[in-house]
Design goal:
The structure holds 2 protein chains of 2 kinds. Chain A is an alpha/beta fold. Chain A folds into 3 domains: 208 residues, FAD/NAD(P)-binding domain; 115 residues, no CATH class; 137 residues, 2-Layer Sandwich (Guanine Nucleotide Dissociation Inhibitor, domain 2), CATH 3.30.519. Helix content of chain A is 34%, strand content 18%. Chain A contains 17 helices and 18 strands. In chain A, strands 1, 2, 9, 10, 11, 12 and 18 form a 7-stranded mixed sheet that branches. In chain A, strands 7-6-14-15-16-13-17 form a 7-stranded mixed sheet, with helices on both faces. In chain B, 20% of the residues lie in helices and 33% in strands. Chain B is built from 9 helices and 19 strands. In chain B, the strands form 4 sheets. A 6-stranded mixed sheet of chain B has the order 10-11-12-9-3-13, sandwiched between helices. Chain B has a 6-stranded antiparallel beta barrel with strand order 14-17-16-15-18-19. In chain B, α2 crosses α7 and α5 crosses α6. The longest helix of chain B has 12 residues. The chains are: A alpha/beta, B alpha+beta. Chains A and B meet through α2, β5 and α4 of A and α2 of B.
């Protein structure tokens, strides 16, 4: 089955109906351009997608929480009017194997009391840590909300951009600047060591530095992403981490409704076979069903590897650029297990229903546990006892499960794309990964196995085959230092343009990267409109 | 000292934050949690149950009940059919609003009026010669607002499938278990929602039934702080905050006409005489001086203002009701913003404001006072249409 577009020529064709592609399309359509979005799958959303895989249960199949969706995008595209509703995560819960547990709340005093059971010292330093992170966030906000600065350029505008970035640190005392430098270079654990002593606090905090990377919590460069958890508090997104009503697909659907309201045309089941390039210029696309569609510009929201090497073809690029794209690290490191449950999961450490279950739940009992999980992955196996980030959205959004029943979403790391048998052997290992996850969780939730009505296991191989994420990388490219800012996806090409005239990029593989932020789509569309190429 | 409502045995056990306020002489929960946030989101994503028993209630029975209500209020109620609810206000002789509330026609000759203040004396003032018995039922009934997208499913569970057919601003009688209740599809959150009216002796039992059915739908008890955020998102004015009851105002300038508080649509001028009619006609001829409007603060301005102090933007954690001045572009005062909130859904600072009519057109640019670091400054804002948030499920 395939769909056909209404016209044969558009101002812009957006490849991929994920949240970034849709965001770009909405901004372009809002500016009056004739836009067509082409989605390969039967459902919009890309990795921000909700699907009813089991009757009555709606799963956020891949991406499971909304992170830093830019608040100005919510306002500019009127997403609330188009159905966007985000419920903040109120708690981070850490069950421990010894029957103890730690819950960190948005209520600071309550958190302090909880942490004091493990370390009175740490409990009293939480405030200082939060203050330091808030100060550092100002720098990060400048980075997220603007195109990447280009330090290699001496053009006045580039220098001005660098100056503005520098000015965001103006007035910061020297020690804060040193701290910023540490944040950009050290490991998540080393950075947290500057404040805290207790494993039970540091382990669950450190994992935000490794999500979607093939790195461990003690690997240098993992501290930076810690900032994202504090960003929401300063940028008007307030309580930015949350569940989208109806699953993360709710975000994509709201953006799609906005795009359509602005006049964009969106097609599902319309897989792009190639980007047509003639004379060094992108002219349009050819669909897998053979349809040829012309466009002034083609905007790709799929990952850099797929865009440049598969849809365009290596022959159209200089060797240097093609090599950069080939070296761009994807190497997916995570999987996903989605469960439909016939009852509320009962944690033996804190039985029963309660607000400690309404946020995210981390299986990350110690730093060594996390490092051991990484060790297995380094040598080509998935972790037998992985880091798992669990959410039970049905506890705050009753629309995703029948009354009294629940959906449980488990993000699993590490599950390396390149297992030692070879990535193509993942289908034979898939259920073993699922078993490892359920076995791990059952150590904390004794009745879990009996309550499972349905289980979906997504390996990095599945993320690639089903969702088009090359090597199963959830961020379309690791969010590691050497792949951020002016290096994302390639040096000199971080401004959404590409070496092909008329071909632009707007996915998570561009600055500022992955997560349900919408920033790459928005910044790409604004850059394209400012270029007057359209 | 406030007194407990009929639901106090349940609300007092659940209100672990001990955050209470006084509402018309009753104890009312501000928020069950230390912060109202979870309750706000329950109202918008699941369902919340709010004890609204302190609302004043009067039951009017008799052949002339409709005639009396049509004389006292701004609406002609003789055409209101059984099973319908209407929203309205009532005025003094000068056409200034005394209070606002709802009228429900429960049966052929039986109406219920609700209000923010006592109703009996005001009705008695006009009831001579009417065939009507007025009963103050404030203490007779407890009232619960069951609000939010899951409210219908919960009510169907406890009161039967007939609820599915109950349309917006309609009323029905039903049973929860074997307890007779009145159910109206009304509320103060601007969302899908119902209000349940029950005799006080059965109040706790109805509460328990609703929670037993509601647990699968993530029903939560909700206090007034969360409701205040939703009512501003819905653009509803609050008596005593956004306007003041005329019979309690020391200054004439404090009083408002229905046209000035956004209730002009409820006034039916061309009919038999009613209290305030002459004055309202004159006001219409003269031109309305003030308008109540929505304001959306400019986020960029707001952020820049805070940044100029080296601060990240700070949004109020709860709805505010300390009025602040509103200026035109030349910094001349043109009115005041009377209540406002950060809208977590819209990612906007919004407010209700009373502005001079000339400045009240949607899209008009104004400046509003914001205090940062003890200093009073102004930022840009835009006059907006209300409701700010209006989900289709409210009426479907």
């Amino acid at each position: 089955m395939s769909a056909h577009p209404r016209a044969s020529r558009y101002d812009a064709i957006v490849i991929g109906g994920g949240h970034n592609g849709l965001t770009a399309a909405a901004y372009l359509a809002k500016a009056g351009r004739k836009v067509l979005v082409l989605e390969r799958r039967h459902v919009l959303g890309g990795a921000a997608v909700s699907e009813q895989l089991y009757p009555g249960f709606t799963f956020s199949v891949c991406s499971y929480v909304v992170s830093l969706l830019r608040p100005h995008i919510v306002r500019e595209l009127q997403l609330a009017r188009h159905g966007l509703e985000i419920i903040p995560l109120d708690c981070s819960f850490l069950p421990l194997p010894n029957g103890d547990s730690l819950a960190r709340w948005s209520d600071g005093e309550r958190t302090r009391r909880e942490v004091a059971r493990f370390s009175p010292h740490d409990s009293e330093r939480l405030g200082e840590f939060g203050l330091a992170m808030t100060k550092l966030c100002r720098f990060a906000k400048q980075i997220i909300d603007n195109p990447a600065p280009d330090p290699a350029s001496l053009a006045p505008r580039e220098l001005l951009n660098l100056l503005r970035l520098g000015r965001s640190m103006r007035g910061d005392p020297t020690d804060l600047r040193w701290l910023n430098f540490k944040l950009l270079t050290t490991s998540a654990v080393d950075f947290l060591d500057l404040w805290f002593e207790s494993d039970q606090l540091k382990a669950p905090m450190s994992v935000s530095g490794i999500i979607g990377t093939f790195l461990g919590v003690r690997s240098p460069g993992t501290a930076y992403v810690l900032l994202h958890h504090y960003m929401g508090e300063i940028d008007g997104a307030f309580r930015a981490w949350g569940f989208s009503k109806g699953g993360t697909g709710g975000v994509s659907m709201a953006i799609a409704r906005a795009a359509r309201a602005f006049g964009a045309e969106i097609l599902e089941q319309a897989a792009v076979a190639e980007v047509r390039v003639h004379g060094g210029k992108a002219r349009g696309v050819v669909l897998e069903n053979g349809d040829t569609i012309d466009a002034e510009v083609v905007v790709s929201s799929v990952d850099p590897n797929r865009t440049f090497l598969q849809l365009v073809g290596e022959r159209h690029f200089d060797t240097e650029f093609a090599d950069q794209i080939k070296r761009f690290k994807l190497r997916g490191s995570s999987g996903k297990v989605n469960l439909a449950l016939d009852r509320l999961p009962e944690f033996s450490c804190r039985p029963g229903d309660g607000p400690h279950l309404y946020g995210d739940i981390a299986i990350a009992p110690s730093i060594d546990y996390l490092e051991r999980a990484y060790d297995e992955a380094k040598y080509g196996d998935f972790s037998q006892r992985p880091y798992i980030n669990v959410v039970i959205p049905s506890l705050v959004d009753p629309s995703v499960a029948p009354p009294g029943k629940h959906v449980m979403s488990c993000f699993v790391q590490y599950a390396p794309y390149d297992i030692k048998e070879g990535a193509e052997h993942w289908p034979q290992r898939r259920e073993a990964l699922g078993d490892a996850v359920v076995d791990t969780l059952a150590e904390y939730i004794p009745g879990l196995k009996e309550s499972i009505l349905y289980r979906q296991v997504l390996t990095p191989w599945d993320l690639e085959q089903e969702f088009g994420l090359t090597e199963g990388n959830i961020f379309q490219g690791e969010l590691s230092q050497e792949q951020l800012l002016f290096l994302r996806p390639a040096a000199g090409w971080a401004r959404y343009r590409t070496p092909i005239d008329g071909l632009w990029a707007c996915g998570s593989g561009t600055h500022p990267g992955g997560g349900i932020m919408g920033a790459p789509g928005e910044l790409a569309a604004k850059a394209l409109l400012a270029s007057r190429r359209l | 000292m406030p007194v407990p409502t009929p639901f106090h045995p349940r609300t007092s056990g659940l209100c672990q934050s001990l955050l209470w306020k006084e509402w018309s002489g009753y104890y009312a929960v501000r928020s069950y949690d230390t912060c109202h946030e979870r309750e706000y989101f329950a109202l918008r994503h699941a369902a919340g149950l709010i004890d609204v028993s302190p609302l004043f209630k009067a039951d009017l029975r008799g052949a002339d009940a409709a005639a009396l209500l049509s004389l006292v209020t701004v609406r002609d109620l003789r055409n209101l059919r059984v099973g319908r609810v209407t929203y309205l206000c009532w005025c003094d002789d000068d056409g200034k609003v005394v209070d606002d509330g709802t009228v429900t026609r429960l049966a052929d000759r039986h109406y219920r009026l609700t209000g923010n203040g006592p109703l009996g004396a005001w009705l008695a003032r006009y009831s001579d010669g009417f065939d009507v018995q007025i009963e103050d039922t404030t203490e007779v009934y407890g009232a619960l607002a069951l609000q939010g997208p899951m409210s219908r499913a919960i009510l169907v569970d406890v009161a039967g499938a007939g609820i599915e057919r109950l349309r917006f601003f309609r009323s029905m009688s039903g049973r929860i278990g074997d307890i007779p209740v009145g159910i109206t599809r009304t509320g103060y959150t601007g969302d899908l929602g119902y209000e349940v009216w029950v005799e006080r002796d059965h109040a706790v039992a109805v509460w328990d039934r609703l929670f037993a059915a509601g647990s699968g739908y993530r029903l939560q008890p909700v206090g007034l702080d969360a409701m205040d955020v939703t009512r501003i998102e819905a653009g509803f004015v609050l008596c005593g905050v956004d306007y003041f009851p005329a019979h309690h105002c020391l200054l004439d300038t404090r009083k408002s006409s229905p046209y000035e508080i956004g209730l002009g649509w409820a006034v039916k001028l061309d009919r038999e005489p009613f209290v305030g009619q002459r004055a309202l006609r004159e006001e219409q001829a003269r031109g309305v001086v003030w308008k109540t409007v929505g304001l959306e603060y400019d986020w960029d301005d707001y952020e820049e203002l805070f940044a100029s102090y080296g601060l990240p933007p700070h949004v109020p954690s709860a709805a505010w009701r300390d009025a602040v001045p509103v200026y035109d572009r030349r910094e001349r005062q043109i009115g005041q913003a009377t209540s406002g909130t950060w809208s977590p859904l819209l990612k906007k600072n919004i407010a209700l404001a009373t502005l001079r009519t000339a400045h009240a057109e949607p899209g008009n640019r104004v400046r509003v006072e914001v205090t940062v670091e003890y200093e009073r400054r102004t930022i840009g804002a835009t006059v907006a249409r209300t409701p700010f948030f209006d989900p289709p499920r409210k009426k479907t």
